[in-house]
Amino acid sequence: MRVDHKYILEIIEPNSHVLDLGCGGGELLSSLMKQKNCRAAGIEIDEQAIYQCVERGVSVSHGDVDSGLADYSDKCFDYVILNESLQEVLNPEKVIAEALRVGKKAIVGIPNFCNLNARWQILFLGRVPVTDGLPYKWYNTPNLRFLSLKDFCDFCKERCITIEHECALNSKGEITFARNLFADTAIFLITKK
Amino acid sequence: MPDQFVETKYFTFALASNELVLKSGIKLGPITLAYETYGQLNADKSNAILIFHALTGDAHAAGWHKDAKTPGWWDPMIGPGKAFDTEKYFIICSNVIGGCKGSTGPSSINPATGKPYGLSFPVITIEDMVACQKHLIDYLGIKKLLAAAGGSMGGLMALEWSVRFPDTLQSAILIATNYKHTAQQIALHEVARQAIMSDPHWNKGDYYGKELPAQGMSVSRMIGHITYMSERSMEEKFGRKLQDKEKVGYDFSQDFEVESYLRYRGASFVQRFDANSYLYLSKALDYFDLSEDTDLSGAFTNTKSKFLIITFTSDWLYPSYQSKDIVKAMKANDIDVSFIEIQTSYGHDSFLVEIDGQSKLVSHFLKNVAKDK
């Protein structure tokens, strides 16, 4: 199992109602259903990924993350997951506000655009970085938003969003030292009063 | 050729003093429904799936009739190892009331007069069609359907069933459908109806045993076929190809292949369908509105089924946004729904021809529904 999925699986309470925005083929939701007895729903834009969701028994709606949340009423989910999808949305500020409207808590997983490898490539190679976590070239990347762990923390602070848990990860597992430098990705559990 | 043939069966109910009260308040009886079944009903009667046909469909959804040249209308989807797997499920399909393929409709003999009903047949609705099929399911001893499924008009019926009989339905598959006809959909039907009704041979619906309103029927079917395709699928299929000639004739005979196709489709429709049935069924579609008494989400308050809703990008007759409205209303009621818009150029006809994607979705969806049982 992917390290980020493993961490998300750990922090979600059993029997929760979960929405995954940009759920891909439904791997994470399927694990949450089986291992945590969660009720799960997903939103996904890719047609082929939807076939995989239906095969896994994951309920899914075909649509984009930017507009997909309007269908839901306030606080109807225990958790809304935005894992590796926030950087691809047109309006992240609105999406996070919406995620915290329909979910009691939100789990946001971001790729770290400022890890050491990326910084090194910009500084010494003079090129837009291509790393394991950011495997795309400038002309084919689906990413629209570029942020680091610190950027996301600032964003939350400015909007009075509470970060209840955070975890910095690389391919081997959790990182606790100089996280903004060494993490490939990070996962935040956030709430708003 | 198949080693086994399928046969249409008949079920009659609403006999004298026990007639069915239609939505309009008019009583009708006796009512006969033509139906077919495929596969075996299991011991606890928990593997039954009801398939609803579209406007001009019939009970013959799958398999072969003896001496037939083509199989049932959804044969690629129903059969051993197919999406609706007859090795696992018991599939039922019935001709709707108001139809002309064995179920009671305007071309049936009115027992009170000994003559075909014609326009004396009461106006029927989607709700009436569903109510009749509920009698059939009760007669077959099935308390709860594993699924109800249908495309176009069939989807409306599955949707209506889920709202009307929520305790009797575990899941529903709605394909290329909506919850109420829009002005454009009603308008297209009205043109088709006017084509029939302005044919002098239609004779206010009294043409049985006489010359048929063939020209009107043919034109109405031509309009229908245009709405079932997309601009791109017509362009891919016909383009500007000429029919049996090297250059255009500069007269009003048949030049283009698309003209020939529509004329052929129109002419063959006269042989296989009843003009009055077309009027009644198209009107039933236009009357249907799940949100007529409440807003749409209010309609799903008691609905318990799990849903799979499928649309097609090039379907301009039943565009995806209408299904998205259904999905939204279902989510407001915390109903378990999956929605997919399949990329295809086949237009509204996709539910009959876009088999690969639908097969994957339907077979996996049913497998998971059966597991939850």
What does this protein look like?
The complex is a heterodimer of chains A (193) and B (373). Chain A is of the alpha/beta class and 193 residues long. Chain A has a single domain, classed as Vaccinia Virus protein VP39 (Rossmann fold), CATH 3.40.50.150. Chain A is built from 8 helices and 8 strands. In chain A, strands 3-2-1-4-5-8-6-7 form an 8-stranded mixed sheet, with helices on both faces. In chain A, strand 2, helix 3 and strand 3 form a beta-alpha-beta unit. Chain B is α/β, with parallel strands linked by helices and 373 residues long. Chain B folds into 2 domains: 256 residues, Rossmann fold, CATH 3.40.50.1820; 98 residues, Rna Polymerase Sigma Factor, Chain: A (Orthogonal Bundle). Chain B is built from 11 helices and 14 strands. In chain B, the strands form 4 sheets. In chain B, strands 1-4-8-5-11-12-13-14 form an 8-stranded mixed sheet, with helices on both faces. In chain B, strand 9 and strand 10 form a beta hairpin. The longest helix of chain B has 18 residues. In chain B, 49% of the residues are buried. The model of chain B has no long low-confidence stretch (mean pLDDT 96). Classes of the chains: A alpha/beta (193), B alpha/beta (373).
